Each structure stands twice: as structure tokens, then as C-alpha cells.
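Case study B.
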Amino acid sequence: MITRLLVANRGEIARRVIRTCRDLGVSPVAVFSDADADAPHVGEADLAVRLPGAAPSETYLRADLLVAAARTAGADAVHPGYGFLSENADFARAVLDAGLTWVGPPPEAIAAMGSKVAAKAMMAEAGVPVLPELDPAEVTEADLPVLVKASAGGGGRGMRVVRSLSALPTAVADAEAEAASAFGDGTVFCEPYLERGRHIEVQVLADRHGAVWAFPERECSLQRRHQKVLEETPSPAVDEELREALRAAATAAVTAIGYVGAGTVEFLLAPDGRFFFLETNTRLQVEHPITECVTGSDLVRWQLAIAEGARLPEGPPPARGHAIEVRLYAEDPADGWRPSTGVLHRFALASGGPGTGSSTMDGQVVEFRTGERDHGLRLDSGVAGSSVIGTHYDPMLAKVIAWAPTRTEAARRLASALASARVHGPTTNRDLLVRALRHPAFLAGDTDTAFLATHDLTAPLADRRAREVSALAAALADAADARRRSPVQRGVPPGWRNLSSQPERKRFLAAGEEIEIAYRLTRDGVTAEGFPEVALVGYDAERVVLDVDGVRVAFDVGAYGDEVYVDSALGPVALRQVPRFTEPGEAVEEGSLLAPMPGTVVAVEAAEGDEVRAGQDLVVLEAMKMRHAVRAPADGVLRALKVAAGDQVEAGAVLAVVH
Amino acid sequence: MTTLRSTVDRRSPEFLANREAMLARLAELAEEHAKALAGGGPKYVDRHHGRGKLLPRERIELLVDQDSAFLELSPLAAWGTDHTVGASVVTGIGVISGVECLIVANDPTVRGGASNPWTLRKTFRATDIALANRLPVVNLVESGGADLASQSEIFVPGGRLFRDLTRFSAARIPTVTLVFGNSTAGGAYVPGMSDHVVMVRERAKVFLGGPPLVRMATGEEADDEELGGAEMHARVSGLADHLAEDELDALRLGRRIVARLNWRKHGPGPSLPPVEPAHDPEDLLGIVPSDLRTPFDPREVIARIVDGSDFDEFKPRYGTSLVTGWASLHGYPLGVLANARGVLFSEEAQKAAQFIQLANSAEVPLLFLQNTTGYMVGREYEQAGIIKHGAMMINAVSNSAVPHLTVVMGASYGAGNYGMCGRAYDPRFLFTWPNAKSAVMGPAQLAGVLSIVARQAAAAKGQPYDEEADANLRAMVEQQVEQQSLAPFLSGRLYDDGVIDPRDTRAVLGICLSAIHSGPVRGAERFGVFRM
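Model:
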């Protein structure tokens, strides 16, 4: 029996495993890098062990430290989560060698599936359809396009699509380098690339007694750079016949390798209905919650039970309805998916839609868990308000999952929850996810791995006018906040004037553009330049209600220093307030000698490159009929001389640089 | 809680007519205020902007905290004179870095910001307010100095400007001067006498004598920058503590200076939350009769000014022509005296004297809401001692040491103006509603009295009385008195601190009370001998 479980991971999956531990009465142990010292998963565990350093290679990828941590904390089992060492057979062996229970498949099964090249051969032998493997050296024009893949890879890393032979050597070299750095194994191979294929996978559970559950399929076709962005179950492209074929293939695959535990068999579904084995993931998948939502199963619970030797009953449980998961990443889809960093000030799914001002989780939202109902929202998040989003780890902030009787209902509910979520911090792919969920092609089930490349969904939900009106709301909330914070005159209406000579002006940056808001608060409300259709209904520091052209719109405003986030039905808007005054003093190069006053250079006593002594006159200025010698502050070399005799200089101008 | 009830009927013809009349007055007032806001007019405003300079109100808007209130004082100064309305200077109370300050800004679009006698009077009124209420003073200077055409009226009294600045400093009331342009000759002593000085690079010009005067006096050849440039003062003379890159930078520096004053108000803070009145201030427009002879219940006004319309009346059944009682405004406790039926009788005078003493005992500021035609006259009242009782009230008002606020809601005639803390009785602030009138007596009464006196004089000399001339005289006097008793006329002469929209009364008084509490609030140690 497992009594104390070390979760050898971080972020949302660590929290996910801890949640099941709580349900089962297992005592969870967390590990944390220095960057994660204040992360939510650390506080939620009973015990936590520090892994010094921040880089994964120093921390979550250190099998020795993790095994030592389990021993020190008195754990009797280890759950690897996903990523990091979850598919590392050596780690599994080290855990077992330490006398601990390994919550995962046998090391041999991991090793067998760890090499994609070998795995494909095994699967072909077991009668599972596979794509032909191509030797990179023998790829011909007729084989194009091809996919270069890392044999030990996953998560899109070490993967390259090649459409011309000339690009192949570079792609192979890059993939090898990336694979070597990410997985410690630079082996790559090639496969035919299906441009419009769908990514279909089957979740399996296998006990130690030969029983296998193959769940209904998941589709994970919406990807960016081979990284899954949206997953759903069931797939709109899979009928009952195909489903049974997929399940049978998956069962055959895991049976062939004597698999035990939770795993996923991934297939590529061609437009003609044929499917091919891609790989087996010998761990829990990121997208496992959608299977949980439609079946009511707790896959982590089954992982622990199987590790304890339990038998799977007759199953799997029947699926009902439809579930969709999206991955909220801290990245900017409009800027080449560039990861964004910074402080996440607030993160919450609001209750009754945008502008309701609620900071609490919706009654229908559950965290890391599937309710008994046939519909709902689930949030699996590794972050909390005021988390710092850094560059050390995966930029995924959270997974949001909706399930409902039908696909359309699930998509609508999820889009709405995302659109109204409070995501106050780094730029995310939230707007793109909402646009995808509302896209006619998506709703028609017309999804394939090229979906995000085919459809440009990078425009923000809030259009320019929405950003402007949101900036007005931000300005008014700021006015209310100013009154609240003022040490005096709190009873006086904001911006009150007995003689009004001009509007109050505030400037904001939104989507790279400056918006100036000029407004006057009067006894009748607000008059704002450029907003003739807008009337003020009410406002305070957190909430502004405006009548926009006869339509009442509520804006929730969250301000954190100069960062302002405005949430409304018009779309979420991130603003940066431009300070009223610019602070003087730009940084100057170290060792710079500045003109102490404006004046004329009357003499230059040294040349560039000269060795100079402390106190030596370098430049002589004349100003206000006074001569002022600028001297070397220390012994050194005159690296730069910026002026010549006769020059006029401003006070503070750089005259020379001495190092 | 004693929440005042209102019996105002918003649909009554009287209410609607009153409202219409008041709106007409407010429209006239807005026109006069527009003159002040226009400064020197579009030509000079454009020229000023063309030089990359800001107008005085633009400077003030950037100086005060965003979304804070600014109460402009004496905006109609010089109204009805040969000088521009506003008197080429802007004064007011604004919040800078959380500190309530008295701001004085020259308007360089009006004759280069030169001072005329009204500029001086308006500035002195502002400095009086700063001194009485212990408000830091911030000068935004750009002035050509004295308007030489009226130098004889300015030179001698003008010395007070510099005397005041150093007395402020001695009283530990900080003075900050931001120099945006000319501040020469006598004007140079404004930065000279200030605690903190900021000068704008290439704009500020501060010297006792400019190049021509220096050449005349000593034969020396020197240019503006050498004699009084910002750079020179920041680096050589030390007159400038801070050198600002431009106007915006000067205002930024000014805000930083105030932020570092370590300013603490000496009066208590508000003791209650600023609950809005239960009744709509909008009704004030319809409550005040367009004909001042019609009395109105001041409780309807109090109910639209004080916190929560909550008012505990003192002696409600005694001396009922004067309403007295306790309330709070923006959380500050307040004693209120308000005329109910114009005339003050002996009872009202004694009630007021007692109430004022109670307020001093409790150290509670007083608000006078004036609508008075004066103390009652006639045999019965003289014999009952109306002079003695009026004197008691004036004694109490004069020697009361708690802060006084006065609002002229309607009539302010005769000694009623004095007893109800008119300008001569130094209320900390005095504001007028646009319908108000103030004079020794009503125009018709005054003309009538003149007529009776003339008739008596003619009779004494046995001369026939020219009825036609009498009628003309009466009409002329009546018209002149009427004109001189109107709000803009009185405001133009600095007899109030501004004419305000009745609906703004609560905000104005709230700002004033908050400013007043920058200084201590103490009751009188003693009063004059009360004649019993």
C-alpha cells in the first residue's frame, strides 16, 4: 500500500497528482527548484524537498536527487508526472532499485517505447499499421514532404517538416542537436508527412494481470509547432467502426510489449480513413482530463491502484458527452508564438460572464476533478495570482476543460469561459483559443494538424474601438481609485472643478498603439473626447459601467502599477498606462565624464587611446566666463573623446570616456 | 440620526419658475467665467502656445494630482473694472502629491502677466487664505512685473507680497516657486523669498535689473542669461534649487518638492464617512425663490448639503427665524446657522450668540447660510434691546475662533450681513450663489429712505418738493444699488471668494473644510463683554 508519494514533477501535473493523493489519503511529497520555491504545488503537499538550482538539468531531471528526496522524506512511491523523467527507464529503475514503488510502466516497456524506431518495428510486428520509416540519407523528391523526428522525442521537440531536399540536411542536423540537448539522444529518423492528417490517440490502462482498458479516442489535431494546443474526445472524424479499430490496435500495441499502467497510443489518421501508429507515451498525458470528464474516471487513482497491484474490473466505463481541453500558454501567437514572461497578477475563471466582478471560481468550475454532472468546467492550473512566469519551464499556465452532452455545447461553454477569464499578466494564447473554438471550420469538425497554419486566428478578440472604450473605462476606474487613495478630500467628486478649463488626460498603450483619453467628470456623468456615443452609468475603482450607443457594458478593471487589464464582453484588453511625466536621466556609459555645465570646449588636453593619470586635465570648458577643467577620475586609458575645441556642449553631455 | 425630511414639490409652478430663473443666472455666470478662462484672448493664447508654453490653468492641471479637485478662487476678480476679468492671475486650492496647497499662477496672456491693483488684491486674498488655513503656497511665475500704468496703486502695497512669503516661511508654511518666464525686478523677490525654487532652462529670467537698466546704472554690458538665466541661477548664483529641462519637468519637480515636505495637517481628519445627502442637490435650483422677498426654509438647503441630510437642530422652537444645529460635511463636524425668514429678532440674536459659544466650546467649525434682511427695527424692538442683542451676536461672531464658512444664499442686507459673518468678519471662506444680493439695505428701501430724508429737508426749509425729480432720483438710486448689490459686482471686488453653482455647495464646502483642517481648529479663549 502506498502511504507517502513523492511527485517528481512541478506545475499543474504535480497539483493534479496531489489532488488524487488527498482523495485517497496518501501523503503527498513535493519537490521544487529554487525558481518554484513559492509555487502552488509546494504549499499543497504535506512535505516538500528542495532541488537546488533552477535549470531542469539541475533539478527535475536529476534522478539521483529525486530518489534521495523520496528517501529523505520517507516516501514509499514515486509518481513521475509527464515530461522531465516520466519516460526515462533509468529513472524508473533507480526508483525500483531504491525499494520504492514506481507509479508507471516497467522500465523495459519504457525503454521499448522510448526508441521510436524500435517501437515502430515492434508495432509492425504486432499487426499495428505503421508509416514506412525513411533513412534520411535516402529520401527522394517523391518522398516529400517528410517529417524528421527524434527517436527519443516528444512534445514537438526535435521535430521538423521538410518540403525540399535541399532543406533536409539542415533540418536533420537541427533536429539532432535539439534532440541531443533535450533528450540526451540525438538519433533522428524520417517518415512521410501527412499534410492534412489528424492526430488521434487512445488512452490505455493495463494492470499487472493482463487486463487492458482502451478508452474512446482523443483527437489532438490543433497544434502549433507540433505542440498540442487543443484536445477533445471523442473525435468528430471517428465513427464507431473506426473507434473500435483504434481501440483494438491500441490494445494490441500494449499487449505486445507487456505494458502496465497508464499509457497512450498515438495514431495519425489520414484523410482517407487509414491510420498509422506514431508512438506510445508511457505516462499520463497532459490531455488526460478530457477522458476523465467523459468517463468519470480518475486516471491518477488507477495509476496508483495498478502500481499497488490492483486488478482492473470489466471496463472501461462508458463515455458520455463530449469534452474539450485547451492549453493556455504564456506566449504571443501574433509574434511567432514568442514566450512571454512576467508576473501573473490574477488568474481566475469568472462566474457569470465578463463584467460580473466576481473573483471567485464559478460553482460549475472544479479544479483537477470531474464532477458527477454531465457538463461542467474543469481547471487544471499550475499557477495562481502573483505567480512569476519565468523562462525555465514550459510556458503552459493552465488547462481549461469543458464537457457537455454535445461537442457544440462544450465548445461554446469553453470559449465563453476563456473569453471571460481574468488573465492579468503575460500575453497568452487565450484569444486565439477562443477564436479557434468559435471558428466555423472547428465547429464543423474540420480539424487537422494544419488547422492553425491554415486559419489566421491571431487577431485579438477586442477590436480597436473595444480597446479605446476599455481605455476610457480604465481611465475612469483610475479616477475612482485616485479618490479612494487620496489622503484628503475623499468626499469630493473626482476631478471636480468650479471652472472647467480642460479635460483630464491619460495615455495608455494597447496592442502597441497609444490611446489618449481626454475626459471631464461632471455632475451629469462623463464627457470624453471621441466618445460621443458613450455615457457613464456608474464607476468605481474595479468596475465601470458605460452605455455604449444604447448598450450597457460592464468593464472590470484590474490595475497593477502601470499595467491595467480591462475585461468586458467587448473582449479582454491589456493596457499600459503611460506616466504623466518622464523621469530625466538616461543611463550613460560607465567611466563617462559629463559636462558639469553647458559651455564651450576651449581645450582638449589628451588624445583618444592615451594613458591618463588621475587628476589629469582632459577637457577644458568655458561657461559663464568660467573655465572648468574636466579631469580624469582615475588612472586609465582615454577610450573615447567625444568633443573637440570650439564645440558647444549641453550640461550632462558626455565629453570623454575613461576606463 | 435625525434625517431631514423634504417637502419640495418638484412639479410645482414655483419650483419650476425658480429653477428656470436660477438656470438663467447660472448661464450668465458661465459667460463671465468664460471671460476669466479666456485670459488674454485667442491671439495671445496662440502666441503663448506657439512659444511652446503652457497656459496657467494647463500648468495647474499638470501640477495637481490627477482626478483631484481644484477650487479656483476669485475667478471674477476685476469684474466691472477696466481690467480683464480674473485679474491676470489664477488662484485656487489644489491637491499636489496628496497635499492641499494654495496655488498662485500668473496669466502671461494678459498683458504679459503684469500685476494691476486687482491682481494684487486677488493675490493677497489668496495668501490670506493660505496663512489662515496653513496651506503651503506654490507660485507659478511668469509675470512682466507691475503694470506701470497703475504703478502708483501697486508699488507701496505690493511690498506685502514679499513680506508674506517670508512670514509663511517663518510660520513653517512652505513656499515653492516655479519660474516659467520673466520674474524680474521686484518679481525677482518671489523666488528670492521662497523656500524652494525651480527654474525652467532657457525660459526663466530672474534679475533685479535687465541689460538696459544695468547699462544705465553701471555701464556694464551683460545679457539676459548672464544676469538671470535659469542655468546661471542653478549653477552660479544658487537662487535656483532645481534646474528644469522644460515646463513639464518644472511641474514634475514641483510635485516632488511637495511630496517631500513631510506635510502633516494640524487639524483633525474627518471623523465620519462622507455620506451623500439623502436629498438631491439638483433641487437647490428650484428651492431658492427668484424673488428674494419670498422666504424659504433653509432646512431644504441643509438637507442637500450635509452628510446624510442628518441635522440635529438646536433650540428649534426658540427664535425660529434663525435655524441652528449640528451636522457633518464630508465627515467634518459642523455647526450651521441659517436665516429662515430674513429678519433677525432679539431671540434669534441671543440664540446665535449661545450657539456660537457652544461651537467654540466644542471646537466645531461654523457654517453661516445667509438670507437676511437685517435686524428688526421699530419701537417695540428698540425698546426690547435689539441693539444689545444684535451686539451680543456680533460679539460672538467676531471673537469666535473656530473656522467660519459663509454662503450667501439670497439676501445679505444691513447688520444682518455682519451678524451672519459677512466678509468683514473674516470667515475662512465666503461664497455667493448667483441670485444673491448684498447691500446696506434693499434698493427700494434705500431709495425710499433717501427720498424721505430729502422730503424732510425740503419741508424744513419750507421749499416745495419736486416729485418728478424725486421719482427720477429714486429710480436712479434703486438701479445703481441693485447693480452694485449683485453677485458678480461684489465678487469682482473680492467681497467673496467666488460665485458658485448652488449644486456645487457641498463640494466647495468640503474642499474648504478639508483645507481648513490643515491648520488647528480651536475654540475662542474668551469673547468680548456681552452686554446683558
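The first helix of chain B runs from residue 13 to 38. The remaining cases will be described in the next quarterly update.
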